Amino acid sequence: MNKGSGGLCGLKIWVYVLGCRSNLYESEALAGELEARGALVAGRPEGCRAAVIVSCSVTATADKKCRQAVRRARRVLGDDGVVAVCGCWAQQLDVDEAGELGVDILVGNRLKSGLPDMLASALSRRPDVPMDARLDLRTGQTWDSLSLIRPVLRSRAFLKVQEGCDHFCSYCVIPFLRGRSTSRPPDEALDEVRRMVGEGCGEIVLTGIHLGMYGRDRGTSLADLIRKISATPGLLRLRLGSLEPFALDDDLLDALAESPVFCPHLHLPLQSGDDGILARMRRGHTADDYARVCESARTRLGDDLHISGDVLVAFPGEDEGAFRNTLDLMRRVGMGRVHVFPFSPRRGTEAAAFSDRVPPPAAYGRVEAAMELGGELLQRYASRFTGRTLSVLYGYTPHFVAFAAAPGERDIEEGRETEIRITDCVKGELRGCLL
Ligand code: SF4
């Protein structure tokens, strides 16, 4: 994608990202392309000529943070600076509002690879109205040819292999902002893994919007891709990003069990433990289905498998009984790390029209209760490793449990896989000493 400097050479550019791992990947790929064109990628706007904001719109809070980032960029860069916004929030933003906020470039999903050229053009002459590159994602599905040489902003390498979603859970705006499920050509993904491993990345995290749908549009599968990637010489660890529970079939479990590099951690969004609420969410599974998936995963991948998940509390119609069912299911499946989100109505989704909302005080109470239980469950899960020897890379064990050197102990060299004797577990974080 590198077409020479194109006018970006020596310019300092702030790259700021919000949201999911797919966004992290896209921000890395954009930062890599800007660097390849001679730009200096910065972690803050001070002293920069331009800003690239990789945006998120999964909740109202995410929208607010995007607005704040744009205002900060405009304020710090001044009138000569160029502000570009791409991704989910940009996909749905009104172009007039974008102009009022001081946005110069609006790039929707599946078109981010074109952003560096637009930036170069806007830097040569700042546009009077926002440059607007957005697709109608209800039709036509292309793969945006972003690629990564090596991580620029972080040490761990995320690899995006799938885009969009066809599931339409009633609360989720993502299918409207990211379009239909589309898979990256497997050979392209494999080439990128080899490149990143060649650049010293020991760990690859496969990610997508609905990762489990990988390959369905190309006559292949996530299981096949994992088998191929797992054979990459020099790869130490392979992780999976969030995986919808209904995508975890026997073939995928077999591929994970056969893989010599798969890290035994699965992030399986739960959302609710109540069948009535799950049905209103259009999750397509029951609480028992979820428990069965966890059980078969442990049977196939071992008892130490770390199952983490997302929980969405205070969904319209959720009464105390339904909420207790969620807490019960979290305990029943022996969850580890839990991310808790309060319901956030998203314009255009079915659930946004549901009138039986949970009052804010009750909603916040449930967030706290679920987070408190999550903390207990993570401590209960992680403390099983006390007394064992585990390897740590980028601050995490293979089971994705955080590690911190015990006070007075030598710390671990970043990016170097290190054997550790685990001596303690505090609030779900392991302590120990280097062997
Ligand atoms: S599976 Fe549901 S929650 Fe996940 S991206 Fe698709 S619609 Fe959203």
3D architecture notes:
- The protein is built from 13 helices and 17 strands.
- The chain is an alpha/beta fold.
- Among the domains are: 12-133, 3-Layer(aba) Sandwich (Rossmann fold), CATH 3.40.50.12160; 386-434, no CATH class.
- The chain has a 6-stranded parallel sheet, with helices on both faces.
- The structure holds iron/sulfur cluster.
- Iron/sulfur cluster is lined by residues 165, 167-169, 172, 174-175, 209-210, 244.
SSE layout and pairing:
Elements: E1 12-17, H1 21-36, E2 40-42, E3 50-55, H2 60-77, E4 82-87, H3 88-92, H4 95-101, E5 105-107, H5 115-124, E6 131-133, E7 157-163, H6 174-178, E8 182-183, H7 186-198, E9 203-208, H8 222-230, E10 237-240, H9 250-258, E11 265-267, H10 275-280, H11 287-301, E12 306-313, H12 320-332, E13 338-342, H13 360-382, E14 389-392, E15 403-405, E16 418-426, E17 429-434
Parallel strand pairs: 1-2, 1-3, 3-4, 4-5, 5-6, 7-9, 9-10, 11-12, 12-13, 15-17
Antiparallel strand pairs: 7-8, 14-16, 16-17
Helix pairs in contact: 8-9, 12-13
This protein binds iron/sulfur cluster.
Percentage of residues in helical conformation: 25-40%
From the alpha-carbon coordinates, what is the Rg to the nearest angstrom? 22 Å
Overall pLDDT? 94
How large a portion of the residues is in β-strands, by DSSP E? Answer: 15-25%
The end-to-end span amounts to 45 Å
Q: Which class of the domain at 12-133 in CATH terms? A: Alpha Beta
Q: In the CATH hierarchy, what is the superfamily of the domain at 12-133?
A: Methylthiotransferase, N-terminal domain
At CATH level 2, the architecture of the domain at 12-133 is 3-Layer(aba) Sandwich
- Derived structural class: alpha/beta
H/E topology pattern: EHEEHEHHEHEEHEHEHEHEHHEHEHEEEE
Please summarize the sheet with the most strands: 6 strands, parallel
Uncertain spans: none
What is the CATH topology descriptor of the domain at 12-133? Rossmann fold
Q: What's the number of helices? A: 13
Q: What is the topology, as strand order, of the major beta sheet?
A: 2-1-3-4-5-6
Care to count the β-strands? 17
